[in-house]
Amino acid sequence: MAIDKRTKKIERKLEDGVFDANTMDVLHKLMRQGHIDKLGGPIAVGKEANVYRAYLGEEKRAVKIYRIETSSFRKMMPYLEGDPRFDVRQAKYDIILVWAKKEFQNLKRAYKAGVPCPKPIAVHKNVLVMGFIGDEEPAPELKDYVPEDIQSVYKGVVDSLHTLYQTAGLVHGDMSEFNILLKDDKPVLIDFGQSMLKEHIRGEELLNRDCGVLAKFFNKHGVETSDLEIKKAITRA
Length: 237
Hints:
Order of helices and strands: HHEEEHHEEHEEEEHH
Largest sheet: 5 strands, antiparallel
Distance between the termini: 56 Å
Low-confidence stretches: 1-14
Mean pLDDT: 88
Number of strands: 9
Strand content: 15-25%
Shape: globular
CATH topology of the largest domain: Phosphorylase Kinase, domain 1
Number of domains: 2
Protein backbone atom coordinates (compact mmCIF):
# COMPACT_ATOMS: atom_id res chain seq x y z
CA MET A 1 0.00 0.00 0.00
CA ALA A 2 2.82 2.42 0.83
CA ILE A 3 4.51 1.80 -2.50
CA ASP A 4 1.19 2.38 -4.30
CA LYS A 5 0.81 5.81 -2.68
CA ARG A 6 4.38 6.72 -3.58
CA THR A 7 3.82 5.51 -7.12
CA LYS A 8 0.85 7.81 -7.54
CA LYS A 9 2.89 10.78 -6.31
CA ILE A 10 5.63 10.08 -8.85
CA GLU A 11 3.24 9.32 -11.69
CA ARG A 12 1.80 12.83 -11.36
CA LYS A 13 5.24 14.09 -12.43
CA LEU A 14 5.43 12.35 -15.80
CA GLU A 15 6.74 15.25 -17.88
CA ASP A 16 9.66 16.54 -19.96
CA GLY A 17 10.57 13.05 -21.12
CA VAL A 18 12.27 12.38 -17.79
CA PHE A 19 9.97 9.87 -16.09
CA ASP A 20 9.86 7.02 -18.58
CA ALA A 21 8.93 3.49 -17.47
CA ASN A 22 12.54 2.48 -16.79
CA THR A 23 13.17 5.57 -14.66
CA MET A 24 9.98 4.92 -12.71
CA ASP A 25 11.27 1.43 -11.93
CA VAL A 26 14.60 2.88 -10.79
CA LEU A 27 12.88 5.37 -8.47
CA HIS A 28 10.76 2.61 -6.96
CA LYS A 29 13.87 0.54 -6.30
CA LEU A 30 15.61 3.47 -4.61
CA MET A 31 12.50 3.86 -2.44
CA ARG A 32 12.51 0.19 -1.50
CA GLN A 33 16.19 0.48 -0.62
CA GLY A 34 15.39 3.31 1.78
CA HIS A 35 17.21 6.14 0.00
CA ILE A 36 14.11 8.30 -0.60
CA ASP A 37 10.44 8.04 0.24
CA LYS A 38 9.02 11.07 -1.56
CA LEU A 39 9.84 13.10 -4.66
CA GLY A 40 9.19 16.84 -4.83
CA GLY A 41 9.38 19.55 -7.43
CA PRO A 42 12.31 20.44 -9.71
CA ILE A 43 15.38 22.27 -8.45
CA ALA A 44 17.13 22.59 -11.80
CA VAL A 45 16.37 21.64 -15.39
CA GLY A 46 19.27 20.91 -17.73
CA LYS A 47 19.93 19.53 -21.20
CA GLU A 48 20.99 16.09 -19.99
CA ALA A 49 19.35 15.87 -16.58
CA ASN A 50 16.85 17.37 -14.16
CA VAL A 51 17.40 17.70 -10.41
CA TYR A 52 14.44 17.28 -8.05
CA ARG A 53 13.80 17.73 -4.37
CA ALA A 54 13.42 14.46 -2.53
CA TYR A 55 12.84 13.43 1.05
CA LEU A 56 13.61 10.61 3.41
CA GLY A 57 11.28 11.34 6.29
CA GLU A 58 12.01 14.97 7.17
CA GLU A 59 15.48 14.93 5.63
CA LYS A 60 15.79 16.80 2.35
CA ARG A 61 17.70 15.15 -0.46
CA ALA A 62 18.29 15.83 -4.15
CA VAL A 63 17.65 13.40 -6.99
CA LYS A 64 19.36 13.88 -10.35
CA ILE A 65 17.69 12.04 -13.22
CA TYR A 66 19.54 11.71 -16.50
CA ARG A 67 17.30 11.58 -19.54
CA ILE A 68 17.73 8.42 -21.57
CA GLU A 69 16.13 9.65 -24.79
CA THR A 70 17.24 13.28 -25.04
CA SER A 71 20.73 13.36 -23.51
CA SER A 72 23.56 14.44 -25.82
CA PHE A 73 25.39 11.18 -25.29
CA ARG A 74 27.89 11.82 -28.10
CA LYS A 75 29.16 14.84 -26.14
CA MET A 76 29.65 12.58 -23.12
CA MET A 77 31.98 10.13 -24.84
CA PRO A 78 35.14 12.32 -24.80
CA TYR A 79 34.80 12.59 -21.01
CA LEU A 80 34.53 8.82 -20.59
CA GLU A 81 37.09 7.50 -23.05
CA GLY A 82 40.47 6.79 -21.54
CA ASP A 83 39.22 6.65 -17.94
CA PRO A 84 40.37 3.26 -16.58
CA ARG A 85 37.57 3.27 -14.01
CA PHE A 86 34.81 2.74 -16.54
CA ASP A 87 34.07 0.31 -19.37
CA VAL A 88 32.16 2.30 -21.97
CA ARG A 89 30.02 0.75 -24.67
CA GLN A 90 28.64 2.63 -27.63
CA ALA A 91 24.90 2.17 -26.98
CA LYS A 92 23.20 5.34 -25.75
CA TYR A 93 21.61 3.58 -22.76
CA ASP A 94 24.95 2.20 -21.59
CA ILE A 95 26.65 5.59 -21.91
CA ILE A 96 24.03 7.34 -19.77
CA LEU A 97 24.34 4.69 -17.06
CA VAL A 98 28.13 4.95 -17.03
CA TRP A 99 27.89 8.75 -16.90
CA ALA A 100 25.66 8.62 -13.81
CA LYS A 101 28.01 6.10 -12.20
CA LYS A 102 30.97 8.31 -13.05
CA GLU A 103 29.41 11.38 -11.44
CA PHE A 104 28.66 9.33 -8.33
CA GLN A 105 32.23 8.01 -8.12
CA ASN A 106 33.64 11.51 -8.65
CA LEU A 107 31.37 12.89 -5.93
CA LYS A 108 32.55 10.16 -3.55
CA ARG A 109 36.18 11.07 -4.16
CA ALA A 110 35.50 14.79 -3.77
CA TYR A 111 33.35 14.40 -0.65
CA LYS A 112 35.85 12.06 1.01
CA ALA A 113 38.65 14.55 0.27
CA GLY A 114 36.74 17.33 2.03
CA VAL A 115 35.63 19.28 -1.02
CA PRO A 116 32.39 21.20 -0.30
CA CYS A 117 29.97 19.33 -2.55
CA PRO A 118 26.71 17.38 -2.27
CA LYS A 119 26.98 14.19 -0.22
CA PRO A 120 26.78 11.16 -2.55
CA ILE A 121 24.09 8.78 -1.27
CA ALA A 122 23.20 6.28 -3.98
CA VAL A 123 23.18 5.69 -7.72
CA HIS A 124 21.12 3.23 -9.70
CA LYS A 125 21.14 3.25 -13.48
CA ASN A 126 20.28 6.84 -14.58
CA VAL A 127 19.30 8.20 -11.15
CA LEU A 128 21.68 9.75 -8.61
CA VAL A 129 20.66 10.54 -5.01
CA MET A 130 22.62 13.28 -3.23
CA GLY A 131 22.49 15.53 -0.22
CA PHE A 132 20.39 18.69 -0.50
CA ILE A 133 22.31 21.98 -0.52
CA GLY A 134 20.30 24.77 1.06
CA ASP A 135 17.91 25.42 3.92
CA GLU A 136 14.19 25.64 3.19
CA GLU A 137 15.01 26.58 -0.39
CA PRO A 138 17.84 25.31 -2.59
CA ALA A 139 21.08 27.30 -2.36
CA PRO A 140 21.39 29.83 -5.23
CA GLU A 141 23.88 29.50 -8.05
CA LEU A 142 26.71 32.02 -8.17
CA LYS A 143 25.42 33.19 -11.56
CA ASP A 144 22.23 34.40 -9.86
CA TYR A 145 23.63 35.69 -6.58
CA VAL A 146 27.01 37.41 -6.15
CA PRO A 147 27.72 38.15 -2.47
CA GLU A 148 29.29 41.39 -1.35
CA ASP A 149 32.45 39.59 -0.23
CA ILE A 150 33.23 38.12 -3.65
CA GLN A 151 36.94 37.90 -2.77
CA SER A 152 36.10 35.36 -0.05
CA VAL A 153 34.03 33.35 -2.53
CA TYR A 154 36.91 33.40 -5.00
CA LYS A 155 39.31 32.10 -2.36
CA GLY A 156 36.84 29.41 -1.34
CA VAL A 157 36.42 28.20 -4.93
CA VAL A 158 40.16 28.07 -5.61
CA ASP A 159 40.87 26.33 -2.29
CA SER A 160 38.16 23.76 -3.06
CA LEU A 161 39.60 23.09 -6.51
CA HIS A 162 43.05 22.72 -4.97
CA THR A 163 41.69 20.05 -2.61
CA LEU A 164 39.87 18.40 -5.50
CA TYR A 165 43.10 18.31 -7.51
CA GLN A 166 45.63 17.39 -4.85
CA THR A 167 43.61 15.16 -2.51
CA ALA A 168 40.85 13.71 -4.71
CA GLY A 169 43.07 13.60 -7.80
CA LEU A 170 40.40 15.16 -10.02
CA VAL A 171 39.97 18.09 -12.40
CA HIS A 172 36.40 19.39 -12.30
CA GLY A 173 36.14 19.94 -16.05
CA ASP A 174 32.99 22.07 -16.06
CA MET A 175 33.75 24.81 -13.55
CA SER A 176 31.75 28.01 -13.91
CA GLU A 177 29.34 30.26 -12.03
CA PHE A 178 26.59 27.82 -13.09
CA ASN A 179 28.15 24.98 -11.08
CA ILE A 180 28.88 26.84 -7.85
CA LEU A 181 26.17 27.07 -5.20
CA LEU A 182 26.33 29.49 -2.29
CA LYS A 183 25.37 28.10 1.11
CA ASP A 184 25.63 30.84 3.74
CA ASP A 185 27.72 32.77 1.17
CA LYS A 186 30.26 29.93 1.00
CA PRO A 187 30.83 28.09 -2.29
CA VAL A 188 29.71 24.51 -2.85
CA LEU A 189 30.81 22.78 -6.06
CA ILE A 190 28.30 20.72 -8.07
CA ASP A 191 28.01 18.79 -11.35
CA PHE A 192 30.95 16.39 -11.37
CA GLY A 193 29.92 14.38 -14.43
CA GLN A 194 32.69 15.84 -16.61
CA SER A 195 35.36 15.57 -13.90
CA MET A 196 38.43 13.53 -14.84
CA LEU A 197 41.43 12.06 -13.12
CA LYS A 198 44.16 14.69 -13.23
CA GLU A 199 46.45 12.19 -14.99
CA HIS A 200 43.96 11.76 -17.85
CA ILE A 201 45.23 12.79 -21.26
CA ARG A 202 42.68 15.64 -21.28
CA GLY A 203 43.22 16.58 -17.63
CA GLU A 204 45.39 19.63 -18.23
CA GLU A 205 43.21 20.82 -21.11
CA LEU A 206 40.14 20.80 -18.86
CA LEU A 207 42.04 22.41 -15.99
CA ASN A 208 43.13 25.24 -18.28
CA ARG A 209 39.55 25.70 -19.45
CA ASP A 210 38.23 25.79 -15.87
CA CYS A 211 40.83 28.39 -14.90
CA GLY A 212 40.01 30.58 -17.89
CA VAL A 213 36.27 30.52 -17.20
CA LEU A 214 36.77 31.34 -13.52
CA ALA A 215 39.23 34.16 -14.22
CA LYS A 216 36.78 35.78 -16.63
CA PHE A 217 33.91 35.61 -14.15
CA PHE A 218 35.80 36.85 -11.10
CA ASN A 219 37.55 39.61 -13.08
CA LYS A 220 34.11 40.81 -14.15
CA HIS A 221 33.12 41.10 -10.50
CA GLY A 222 36.18 42.98 -9.32
CA VAL A 223 38.63 40.25 -8.32
CA GLU A 224 42.11 40.78 -9.73
CA THR A 225 43.30 37.39 -10.90
CA SER A 226 44.24 35.46 -14.04
CA ASP A 227 43.90 31.96 -15.40
CA LEU A 228 47.61 31.38 -14.73
CA GLU A 229 47.30 32.55 -11.12
CA ILE A 230 44.30 30.27 -10.55
CA LYS A 231 46.08 27.31 -12.11
CA LYS A 232 49.14 27.84 -9.90
CA ALA A 233 46.93 27.99 -6.82
CA ILE A 234 45.08 24.79 -7.77
CA THR A 235 48.16 22.76 -8.64
CA ARG A 236 50.45 23.97 -5.85
CA ALA A 237 51.92 21.17 -3.74
